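quick one
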Amino acid sequence: MSTHKALLLLEKQGKYAVQDIPTPKPGPGELLIEIKATGLNPVDWKIHDYAFFVTEYPAILGTDSAGTVKEIGEGVTGFAVGDRVLHQGYFSNTKATFQQYTIVPAEITAKLPSNLTFEQGSTIPLVLATAAFGLYSGKVTTGELRGAELTAPWEEGGRGKYAGQPIVIVGGSSAVGQQATQLAKLSGFSPIIVTASLKNTDFLKSLGATHVIDRNADLPSSVKAITSDPIKYVYDAISLKQTQESAYEVLASGGTLILVLDFAVDEAKVDKTKRVAKVFGTTYDPAQNALGTSLYKKLTKLLESGDLKPNHVEVLPNGLAGIPDGLEKLKANQVSASKLVAQPWA
Ligand SMILES: NC(=O)c1ccc[n+]([C@@H]2O[C@H](COP(=O)([O-])OP(=O)(O)OC[C@H]3O[C@@H](n4cnc5c(N)ncnc54)[C@H](OP(=O)(O)O)[C@@H]3O)[C@@H](O)[C@H]2O)c1
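structure w/ NAP:
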Protein backbone atom coordinates (compact mmCIF):
# COMPACT_ATOMS: atom_id res chain seq x y z
CA MET A 1 0.00 0.00 0.00
CA SER A 2 1.33 3.46 -0.90
CA THR A 3 1.37 6.10 1.76
CA HIS A 4 1.99 9.85 1.87
CA LYS A 5 2.39 12.61 4.42
CA ALA A 6 -0.57 14.61 5.70
CA LEU A 7 -1.06 17.22 8.40
CA LEU A 8 -3.60 15.66 10.78
CA LEU A 9 -5.73 17.54 13.27
CA LEU A 10 -5.63 14.75 15.83
CA GLU A 11 -8.84 15.54 17.69
CA LYS A 12 -11.54 18.21 17.99
CA GLN A 13 -9.80 21.53 18.77
CA GLY A 14 -6.64 19.51 19.38
CA LYS A 15 -3.04 19.42 18.20
CA TYR A 16 -1.69 18.86 14.68
CA ALA A 17 0.87 16.23 13.61
CA VAL A 18 2.43 15.25 10.29
CA GLN A 19 1.86 11.52 9.76
CA ASP A 20 1.86 8.90 7.00
CA ILE A 21 -1.57 7.90 5.70
CA PRO A 22 -2.72 5.57 2.88
CA THR A 23 -2.83 7.18 -0.57
CA PRO A 24 -6.31 6.77 -2.11
CA LYS A 25 -7.11 5.70 -5.68
CA PRO A 26 -9.16 8.00 -7.92
CA GLY A 27 -12.69 6.72 -8.62
CA PRO A 28 -14.65 7.23 -11.85
CA GLY A 29 -14.49 10.87 -12.97
CA GLU A 30 -11.73 11.68 -10.47
CA LEU A 31 -8.05 12.58 -10.50
CA LEU A 32 -5.30 11.87 -7.98
CA ILE A 33 -3.27 15.07 -7.59
CA GLU A 34 0.28 15.40 -6.26
CA ILE A 35 -0.03 18.70 -4.38
CA LYS A 36 2.92 21.03 -4.90
CA ALA A 37 1.42 24.02 -3.09
CA THR A 38 -1.58 24.56 -0.84
CA GLY A 39 -3.08 27.88 0.25
CA LEU A 40 -4.25 28.63 3.80
CA ASN A 41 -7.67 30.19 4.44
CA PRO A 42 -9.35 31.67 7.54
CA VAL A 43 -11.87 28.81 7.47
CA ASP A 44 -9.04 26.38 8.36
CA TRP A 45 -8.32 27.99 11.75
CA LYS A 46 -12.05 28.53 12.32
CA ILE A 47 -12.73 24.81 11.82
CA HIS A 48 -10.03 24.06 14.36
CA ASP A 49 -11.33 26.58 16.91
CA TYR A 50 -15.11 26.27 16.44
CA ALA A 51 -15.33 22.62 15.30
CA PHE A 52 -17.73 22.93 12.36
CA PHE A 53 -17.81 21.14 8.94
CA VAL A 54 -15.56 18.34 10.19
CA THR A 55 -17.02 15.52 12.31
CA GLU A 56 -14.43 12.75 12.13
CA TYR A 57 -10.91 12.89 13.59
CA PRO A 58 -8.05 12.72 12.88
CA ALA A 59 -9.04 15.24 10.20
CA ILE A 60 -7.18 16.84 7.32
CA LEU A 61 -7.98 20.49 6.57
CA GLY A 62 -7.08 22.72 3.62
CA THR A 63 -9.08 23.45 0.46
CA ASP A 64 -6.68 25.04 -2.05
CA SER A 65 -4.34 23.04 -4.25
CA ALA A 66 -2.04 23.36 -7.22
CA GLY A 67 -0.06 20.36 -8.36
CA THR A 68 0.27 17.70 -11.03
CA VAL A 69 -2.00 14.86 -12.14
CA LYS A 70 -0.61 11.60 -10.75
CA GLU A 71 -3.37 9.13 -11.66
CA ILE A 72 -6.54 9.31 -13.73
CA GLY A 73 -9.88 7.69 -12.84
CA GLU A 74 -12.17 5.84 -15.21
CA GLY A 75 -14.00 7.95 -17.79
CA VAL A 76 -11.92 11.11 -17.35
CA THR A 77 -11.03 12.87 -20.57
CA GLY A 78 -8.95 15.99 -21.19
CA PHE A 79 -6.23 15.32 -18.58
CA ALA A 80 -2.93 13.43 -18.81
CA VAL A 81 -0.55 12.26 -16.08
CA GLY A 82 1.86 15.11 -15.32
CA ASP A 83 -0.53 17.94 -16.25
CA ARG A 84 -0.14 21.03 -14.04
CA VAL A 85 -3.53 21.80 -12.46
CA LEU A 86 -5.31 23.81 -9.76
CA HIS A 87 -8.52 23.01 -7.89
CA GLN A 88 -10.48 23.52 -4.71
CA GLY A 89 -10.42 20.82 -2.05
CA TYR A 90 -13.10 19.77 0.41
CA PHE A 91 -13.24 18.88 4.09
CA SER A 92 -12.86 15.11 3.85
CA ASN A 93 -9.60 13.25 4.35
CA THR A 94 -9.41 12.18 0.71
CA LYS A 95 -10.31 15.62 -0.70
CA ALA A 96 -8.58 18.06 1.69
CA THR A 97 -5.28 19.66 0.67
CA PHE A 98 -2.94 19.86 3.68
CA GLN A 99 -1.32 16.66 2.40
CA GLN A 100 0.87 15.39 -0.44
CA TYR A 101 -1.88 13.70 -2.49
CA THR A 102 -5.58 14.43 -2.83
CA ILE A 103 -8.56 13.36 -4.91
CA VAL A 104 -10.68 15.77 -6.98
CA PRO A 105 -13.51 15.40 -9.49
CA ALA A 106 -12.00 16.24 -12.91
CA GLU A 107 -14.95 18.52 -13.81
CA ILE A 108 -13.87 21.02 -11.14
CA THR A 109 -10.16 20.93 -12.00
CA ALA A 110 -8.44 23.32 -14.42
CA LYS A 111 -5.03 23.23 -16.07
CA LEU A 112 -2.62 25.71 -14.56
CA PRO A 113 -1.19 27.91 -17.33
CA SER A 114 2.59 28.29 -17.62
CA ASN A 115 2.50 31.98 -16.59
CA LEU A 116 1.64 30.93 -13.01
CA THR A 117 3.71 29.03 -10.45
CA PHE A 118 2.13 26.30 -8.35
CA GLU A 119 2.31 28.66 -5.38
CA GLN A 120 0.40 31.38 -7.26
CA GLY A 121 -2.15 28.84 -8.48
CA SER A 122 -2.84 27.66 -4.96
CA THR A 123 -3.93 31.18 -3.91
CA ILE A 124 -6.95 31.08 -6.21
CA PRO A 125 -9.53 28.26 -5.96
CA LEU A 126 -11.50 28.82 -2.71
CA VAL A 127 -11.55 32.60 -2.88
CA LEU A 128 -12.36 32.66 -6.58
CA ALA A 129 -15.35 30.35 -5.99
CA THR A 130 -16.42 32.60 -3.10
CA ALA A 131 -16.20 35.78 -5.17
CA ALA A 132 -17.78 34.19 -8.26
CA PHE A 133 -20.65 32.45 -6.48
CA GLY A 134 -21.43 35.62 -4.50
CA LEU A 135 -21.83 37.61 -7.71
CA TYR A 136 -23.19 35.02 -10.14
CA SER A 137 -25.01 32.34 -8.10
CA GLY A 138 -28.57 32.84 -6.89
CA LYS A 139 -31.45 31.18 -5.07
CA VAL A 140 -30.92 27.47 -4.38
CA THR A 141 -33.65 24.85 -3.87
CA THR A 142 -33.74 25.39 -0.09
CA GLY A 143 -34.83 28.98 -0.84
CA GLU A 144 -31.53 30.51 0.35
CA LEU A 145 -30.06 33.31 -1.74
CA ARG A 146 -26.36 32.49 -2.28
CA GLY A 147 -25.50 35.17 -4.80
CA ALA A 148 -26.63 38.30 -6.61
CA GLU A 149 -27.92 36.41 -9.68
CA LEU A 150 -25.73 38.33 -12.15
CA THR A 151 -24.61 36.79 -15.46
CA ALA A 152 -21.01 35.55 -15.19
CA PRO A 153 -18.49 37.21 -17.52
CA TRP A 154 -17.35 33.84 -18.89
CA GLU A 155 -20.94 33.03 -19.97
CA GLU A 156 -22.44 34.27 -23.23
CA GLY A 157 -23.39 37.94 -22.96
CA GLY A 158 -21.87 38.28 -19.50
CA ARG A 159 -18.63 40.10 -20.29
CA GLY A 160 -19.08 43.85 -19.71
CA LYS A 161 -22.83 43.39 -19.14
CA TYR A 162 -23.01 45.77 -16.15
CA ALA A 163 -21.09 48.63 -17.79
CA GLY A 164 -21.76 51.97 -16.15
CA GLN A 165 -23.17 50.48 -12.92
CA PRO A 166 -21.32 51.09 -9.66
CA ILE A 167 -20.30 48.35 -7.23
CA VAL A 168 -18.78 48.59 -3.75
CA ILE A 169 -16.42 45.89 -2.45
CA VAL A 170 -15.62 45.99 1.25
CA GLY A 171 -12.23 44.44 1.96
CA GLY A 172 -10.79 44.76 -1.56
CA SER A 173 -7.34 43.54 -0.49
CA SER A 174 -8.63 40.38 1.19
CA ALA A 175 -8.11 37.25 -0.87
CA VAL A 176 -11.86 37.08 -1.58
CA GLY A 177 -12.03 40.84 -2.26
CA GLN A 178 -9.20 40.68 -4.82
CA GLN A 179 -11.09 38.09 -6.88
CA ALA A 180 -14.39 39.98 -6.49
CA THR A 181 -12.69 43.17 -7.75
CA GLN A 182 -11.29 41.41 -10.83
CA LEU A 183 -14.63 39.75 -11.61
CA ALA A 184 -16.43 43.09 -11.18
CA LYS A 185 -14.07 44.53 -13.78
CA LEU A 186 -14.77 41.67 -16.22
CA SER A 187 -18.50 42.23 -15.63
CA GLY A 188 -18.05 45.85 -16.68
CA PHE A 189 -18.95 47.54 -13.37
CA SER A 190 -17.79 51.14 -13.03
CA PRO A 191 -16.89 52.72 -10.75
CA ILE A 192 -15.48 49.81 -8.70
CA ILE A 193 -15.14 51.25 -5.22
CA VAL A 194 -13.18 49.16 -2.69
CA THR A 195 -12.14 49.59 0.94
CA ALA A 196 -8.68 48.61 2.20
CA SER A 197 -5.62 49.93 3.97
CA LEU A 198 -4.41 52.70 1.68
CA LYS A 199 -0.94 51.13 1.37
CA ASN A 200 -2.64 48.60 -0.94
CA THR A 201 -4.09 51.27 -3.28
CA ASP A 202 -1.77 50.74 -6.28
CA PHE A 203 -2.13 46.98 -6.12
CA LEU A 204 -5.94 47.19 -5.97
CA LYS A 205 -6.03 49.64 -8.87
CA SER A 206 -3.94 47.14 -10.87
CA LEU A 207 -6.73 44.59 -10.27
CA GLY A 208 -9.49 46.92 -11.49
CA ALA A 209 -10.52 49.07 -8.53
CA THR A 210 -11.26 52.62 -9.70
CA HIS A 211 -11.42 54.10 -6.17
CA VAL A 212 -9.85 52.89 -2.92
CA ILE A 213 -11.40 54.15 0.33
CA ASP A 214 -9.53 53.87 3.63
CA ARG A 215 -11.08 50.94 5.51
CA ASN A 216 -11.43 53.21 8.58
CA ALA A 217 -13.24 56.03 6.75
CA ASP A 218 -17.01 56.55 6.88
CA LEU A 219 -18.20 54.39 3.98
CA PRO A 220 -21.60 55.97 3.10
CA SER A 221 -20.23 59.54 2.84
CA SER A 222 -17.05 58.38 1.04
CA VAL A 223 -19.11 56.53 -1.58
CA LYS A 224 -21.47 59.52 -2.02
CA ALA A 225 -18.45 61.70 -2.76
CA ILE A 226 -17.57 59.37 -5.66
CA THR A 227 -21.00 58.71 -7.22
CA SER A 228 -24.60 59.76 -6.74
CA ASP A 229 -25.89 56.71 -8.67
CA PRO A 230 -27.79 54.12 -6.61
CA ILE A 231 -25.51 51.33 -5.40
CA LYS A 232 -27.30 48.11 -6.29
CA TYR A 233 -24.48 45.72 -5.41
CA VAL A 234 -22.20 45.64 -2.38
CA TYR A 235 -19.85 42.67 -1.84
CA ASP A 236 -18.74 42.65 1.80
CA ALA A 237 -15.72 40.32 1.74
CA ILE A 238 -15.12 40.96 5.45
CA SER A 239 -18.72 40.73 6.78
CA LEU A 240 -18.04 41.71 10.38
CA LYS A 241 -21.05 43.42 12.06
CA GLN A 242 -19.42 46.81 11.62
CA THR A 243 -18.61 46.40 7.90
CA GLN A 244 -22.04 44.88 7.24
CA GLU A 245 -23.84 47.81 8.81
CA SER A 246 -22.05 50.42 6.73
CA ALA A 247 -22.32 48.24 3.60
CA TYR A 248 -26.06 47.88 4.22
CA GLU A 249 -26.44 51.62 4.61
CA VAL A 250 -24.64 52.23 1.29
CA LEU A 251 -26.91 49.78 -0.53
CA ALA A 252 -29.83 51.26 -2.49
CA SER A 253 -33.37 50.03 -2.10
CA GLY A 254 -33.83 46.86 -4.17
CA GLY A 255 -30.08 46.23 -4.15
CA THR A 256 -28.21 43.09 -3.04
CA LEU A 257 -25.68 42.86 -0.21
CA ILE A 258 -23.37 39.86 -0.66
CA LEU A 259 -21.95 38.46 2.57
CA VAL A 260 -19.32 35.84 3.34
CA LEU A 261 -20.42 35.42 6.97
CA ASP A 262 -23.88 35.38 8.61
CA PHE A 263 -26.09 38.48 8.43
CA ALA A 264 -25.42 40.59 11.53
CA VAL A 265 -27.17 43.92 10.91
CA ASP A 266 -29.31 45.06 13.87
CA GLU A 267 -32.98 44.16 13.49
CA ALA A 268 -33.98 47.81 13.88
CA LYS A 269 -31.95 48.74 10.78
CA VAL A 270 -33.35 46.01 8.53
CA ASP A 271 -34.99 47.26 5.32
CA LYS A 272 -37.04 44.54 3.61
CA THR A 273 -36.47 46.10 0.17
CA LYS A 274 -32.77 45.17 0.38
CA ARG A 275 -31.75 41.61 -0.50
CA VAL A 276 -29.02 39.77 1.37
CA ALA A 277 -27.10 36.87 -0.19
CA LYS A 278 -24.88 34.61 1.94
CA VAL A 279 -22.15 32.95 -0.11
CA PHE A 280 -21.30 29.25 0.08
CA GLY A 281 -17.96 29.29 -1.71
CA THR A 282 -17.39 25.68 -2.64
CA THR A 283 -17.41 24.07 -6.05
CA TYR A 284 -18.55 20.86 -4.28
CA ASP A 285 -22.02 22.32 -3.50
CA PRO A 286 -24.45 20.32 -5.68
CA ALA A 287 -26.76 23.37 -5.84
CA GLN A 288 -23.99 25.40 -7.50
CA ASN A 289 -22.37 22.58 -9.49
CA ALA A 290 -23.35 23.97 -12.91
CA LEU A 291 -21.79 27.37 -12.19
CA GLY A 292 -18.67 25.75 -10.69
CA THR A 293 -18.08 23.44 -13.65
CA SER A 294 -18.67 26.26 -16.16
CA LEU A 295 -16.12 28.41 -14.29
CA TYR A 296 -13.55 25.59 -14.31
CA LYS A 297 -14.03 25.07 -18.07
CA LYS A 298 -13.00 28.71 -18.65
CA LEU A 299 -10.53 29.18 -15.79
CA THR A 300 -7.30 28.30 -17.63
CA LYS A 301 -7.96 30.98 -20.27
CA LEU A 302 -8.95 33.58 -17.65
CA LEU A 303 -5.63 32.97 -15.86
CA GLU A 304 -3.51 32.73 -19.00
CA SER A 305 -4.82 36.06 -20.32
CA GLY A 306 -4.28 37.79 -16.97
CA ASP A 307 -8.03 38.55 -16.67
CA LEU A 308 -7.72 36.87 -13.26
CA LYS A 309 -4.48 37.29 -11.34
CA PRO A 310 -3.26 35.42 -8.27
CA ASN A 311 -2.74 36.92 -4.83
CA HIS A 312 0.77 37.80 -3.60
CA VAL A 313 2.42 34.66 -2.21
CA GLU A 314 4.13 34.21 1.15
CA VAL A 315 5.67 30.72 1.30
CA LEU A 316 5.69 29.22 4.80
CA PRO A 317 8.79 27.43 6.10
CA ASN A 318 8.82 23.72 7.10
CA GLY A 319 6.30 22.28 4.62
CA LEU A 320 3.16 20.77 6.15
CA ALA A 321 4.56 21.23 9.67
CA GLY A 322 4.67 25.00 9.07
CA ILE A 323 0.90 25.27 8.51
CA PRO A 324 -0.28 25.58 12.17
CA ASP A 325 1.92 28.66 12.69
CA GLY A 326 0.55 30.10 9.46
CA LEU A 327 -3.02 29.57 10.68
CA GLU A 328 -2.16 31.46 13.90
CA LYS A 329 -0.86 34.33 11.80
CA LEU A 330 -4.10 34.45 9.80
CA LYS A 331 -6.14 34.34 12.99
CA ALA A 332 -4.14 37.25 14.43
CA ASN A 333 -4.94 39.35 11.29
CA GLN A 334 -1.24 39.60 10.43
CA VAL A 335 -1.70 39.01 6.70
CA SER A 336 -2.36 41.94 4.33
CA ALA A 337 -3.06 41.51 0.62
CA SER A 338 -1.29 38.16 0.39
CA LYS A 339 -1.84 34.43 0.78
CA LEU A 340 0.13 32.08 3.01
CA VAL A 341 1.15 29.02 1.03
CA ALA A 342 2.68 25.71 2.18
CA GLN A 343 4.69 23.26 0.07
CA PRO A 344 3.75 19.71 1.18
CA TRP A 345 6.96 18.14 -0.19
CA ALA A 346 9.34 20.68 1.43
N1 LIG B 1 -18.86 32.00 2.99
C1 LIG B 1 -17.84 31.41 2.41
O1 LIG B 1 -18.00 30.42 1.69
C2 LIG B 1 -16.45 31.94 2.59
C3 LIG B 1 -15.44 31.54 1.73
C4 LIG B 1 -14.16 32.11 1.86
C5 LIG B 1 -13.91 33.02 2.86
N2 LIG B 1 -14.91 33.34 3.72
C6 LIG B 1 -14.66 34.34 4.78
O2 LIG B 1 -14.32 35.55 4.13
C7 LIG B 1 -13.49 36.34 4.98
C8 LIG B 1 -12.31 36.82 4.17
O3 LIG B 1 -11.48 35.73 3.82
P1 LIG B 1 -10.11 35.99 3.05
O4 LIG B 1 -9.44 34.70 2.84
O5 LIG B 1 -10.37 36.84 1.88
O6 LIG B 1 -9.33 36.83 4.16
P2 LIG B 1 -7.83 37.41 4.17
O7 LIG B 1 -7.31 37.57 2.80
O8 LIG B 1 -7.03 36.65 5.14
O9 LIG B 1 -8.12 38.84 4.84
C9 LIG B 1 -7.08 39.71 5.11
C10 LIG B 1 -7.44 41.04 4.52
O10 LIG B 1 -8.62 41.54 5.15
C11 LIG B 1 -8.60 42.95 5.06
N3 LIG B 1 -9.46 43.50 6.13
C12 LIG B 1 -9.57 43.07 7.42
N4 LIG B 1 -10.47 43.83 8.08
C13 LIG B 1 -10.95 44.75 7.20
C14 LIG B 1 -11.89 45.81 7.29
N5 LIG B 1 -12.54 46.09 8.42
N6 LIG B 1 -12.14 46.53 6.18
C15 LIG B 1 -11.49 46.29 5.01
N7 LIG B 1 -10.56 45.30 4.87
C16 LIG B 1 -10.30 44.54 5.95
C17 LIG B 1 -7.14 43.31 5.24
O11 LIG B 1 -6.99 44.45 4.45
P3 LIG B 1 -5.80 45.54 4.60
O12 LIG B 1 -4.54 44.75 4.83
O13 LIG B 1 -5.83 46.27 3.28
O14 LIG B 1 -6.14 46.41 5.77
C18 LIG B 1 -6.37 42.08 4.69
O15 LIG B 1 -5.80 42.32 3.41
C19 LIG B 1 -13.13 35.43 6.16
O16 LIG B 1 -13.97 35.72 7.26
C20 LIG B 1 -13.44 34.04 5.64
O17 LIG B 1 -13.69 33.11 6.65
C21 LIG B 1 -16.17 32.84 3.61
